[in-house]
Structure formats: structure tokens, C-alpha cells
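Journal club prep — side note

Before the paper discussion, L.F. wants everyone to see what a predicted structure for a comparable chain looks like in C-alpha cell form. Sequence:
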Amino acid sequence: MEYSIEKTSQTSVRLAVTCSADEVKKAFERAAKAIGKGMNLPGFRVGKIPVNVIKSRFGSRVAADATEILADDNMMEILKKEGIRPLCPSQYHGKPAVEGESFSFSSSFDVLPEVKLPDLETLSVTVPDPAPSEDALNAMLDQALRRLARYVDITDRKPEDHDLLTVDVRGTVDGKALPGMTADNFRMQLIPVKPGEKVPEMDPIVRALNVGEEGQGVMICPDNYPDPVLRGREVQLDVVLRRIQREVLPPLTDETAQKLGFATFDALKQEVWQQTFATHMRRIQSEGKSVLMEEQLAGQDFPLPESLVMRFYREHQRDAEHYLKKQHADEQTIRETLEHMREESMEFARKKAKGHTFLLALAEREGIHVSGREAEDAVRAMTRGTGQNYEDLRKTIWEAGVITAMQERMIAEKALDRLYGAARKVMAESTVLRPFSEVKKESL
């Protein structure tokens, strides 16, 4: 085997390979034996069919398998020898191998560019006090108590703070309904608005209605709406108030705690504290990782592998399409919205690819990898609680060729964990809050 490597750009490589006629012959023999193994053919014992018979009867299949053997085996050998790590499945260029002749093919793929990486020991990040706030603890406690809540229908007044409402809402621009802003039996709760906070657009409309009445109002289409053409436009809102309910939580007693599976109210509070703390820590870590990534990427300018950019572009478009379908948008609306989003999807993709490239480069320097077993475990985890069959999902992932992208993501996540784990955590100043232990249970 002879080969040459050409770096066609800072992020792409072309590999040209020539195999001798003898190597081609061995590949054909190997392919034919593999096809004949276990095959049941009249006149021959199972698995004992001569190679020349297999070649004669299944010539095109043998040639295809031999070509794959030559390409895959030689590629793997060369990449390992040269220390090259492709970022995506390679693009094969060449004709099928012919027995008795030499075989040449080429392959192109993306690789990582040169990226400036930090000294992990010099990193630091500011994080908030990990102790959860009283508001967060009480919100989590209410969430636990809500499992035993009862709801009282209100018919003799207009909506007030904390009421649960059921409404039909229709948002339109120029008479055309907007996906995501049109829904029947939509559930919402009126939250008290603190001084200085913006009042939600729906609030003044619904607060003026009695059950069964219809009201109108306007809102500005938000900046995160999928279709960028509609952002900032005035949206006409038509709202019908269907129901007003008041949520009544159970008393804070040992009896209530026991109904929720806890021995005492204090045991319930302890569980609430632990869950709130865990949630708060996950948020702190997520925000800390984002800050670190922004700091590392600021001012960096390196070429992006086109395969990564296009992968994230397609994902952004697919996510938008999925959202629009869930909102019952028609096919024309979906097509128009995705077309309007092309520039934004590409901007998103380039930003995502930049961070991904940085993390993969860091992983390569730090020797971070994902084993086949880890990938298998990740696929198995995807089936938990979904009702999906593991073997079917595994087959789909491997046949679709997305396993490489999946492993890349896992490697990038490990690299981000390494980045955050190595950074020195500097705690920001925080106010002293009343301990949650002071929340008293109510007397029986």
C-alpha cells in the first residue's frame, strides 16, 4: 500500500491510497469467505461453499465488500499511524475494486484547526453562594405540596393574583394566526408583578374579564420568536376566559408530610432543601461553564470545520421545524419560516461550531476520549422512560452514521467538565437569608 496526505485547508485533509493487485486479491478472498460463512446453497454443505463459487454467483456483492474492506482497513491503519483524527465520516472517492488489478481511491475529511488553549491551572470563575434562597426553597416546597392541592372554581369575580386561568388565545399578525401564540384551553397563573418589573401582555386583558367573556389586546412579538421577520411586530391578541380556579395547598403538618411519603414535616423540609440545593448547584455549574467558554472564545479567531458548521445548521433548522409542527403550523408557514431563519441558523451554527471545536481541541490535548462502552451506555440511557427498544435505537444510530457525532458531543462535554473542574471558584458576595429551618409546621 502506498499513500499520500494533502492538507487542502486548515481544517480539511485529502488522503490518496493505492493498493497492490495482491492486496486486492486478498480482500476479495476475505470478502467471499465472509459472505459464504453460514450460507446455505444447494449442493454444498453450510459454510463450505468454495470461494470461486461465491465469487461467480455473487460477484457484485463480493466486489462491493472487498472495496469496503480495502478502504476501511487502510484508512484506519493510516490514520492511526499518522495520528490523524477525522471530525466526521470521510467522503470516499473512487471506483469499485477489480480483482487482479491495483486499486486506488481517495478520501477527504475535516480535522481540527490550530486553537489557542488555556493553562487550566490559571483559570478562575465567579460563582454565587451555593446555599439556595428562601424563595427557591419555598417554591420547591409548594411544588411538593401541589401533589395534594385542591382547586376551587371562581365564578363571582374577575381574576386576581395567584389565580389559575384557562383561556383560549389567538395571536395574529395581519389576520394570520401565529404558531405558538394560538391555543385552546391554555393554562396560566397570574403572578404578582413586583415594582419595576414588566407586566406580561396577557395580564391586563384577562384581569378585565369575567368567565365566558372575550377581550382584545396587543403585544410585541418577542425577540426569540422562531420567524425573525415577525419579531418586533405588533401582535393582535384575542382572548376568551374559560375558567378561574384558586389553588388551595394542604397545611404544613406532619399529616401532610406523611401523605407525601415522609415520616415528619421536618423530613419533608430536609428533602426539599436537598432537591433545591441540587437544582441550584446544577444552575451554578451551567452558568459557570458558559462564562468560562465565553472568556476562552473571546478574541479567538480560528477556521471552523465546515462539517461541524453544517451539522449544527441542520440541527437548528430541524429544531425549528419540530417546534412549528408541534404548534400545528401549516407546511407553507413552516417553509417560509425556515427560509427566513437561514441567516440566523447559520450564525447559530458558527457560534456552536466554534465552541465545539475549542472543546474538542482541549480534549485532544488532555487525552480525553469516549470508549465504545460509554457510547453504548449513552444509547441505553436514551431509551429509559421512553418506551424505545434499545437494540432498535442502537441499530438506527449506527446505520444513520450519527454515532461519530454522538461520541464527539460526549467528548466535548467531558472537556467542558474538565475546564470547569480545573477553574478556581471565587464566591460572589450574597445577602444573608433566613434559614429554611425556621419554616414552621402548622399545628394540627
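L.F.'s comment for the group: The mean pLDDT is 90. Keep this in mind when we get to the figures.
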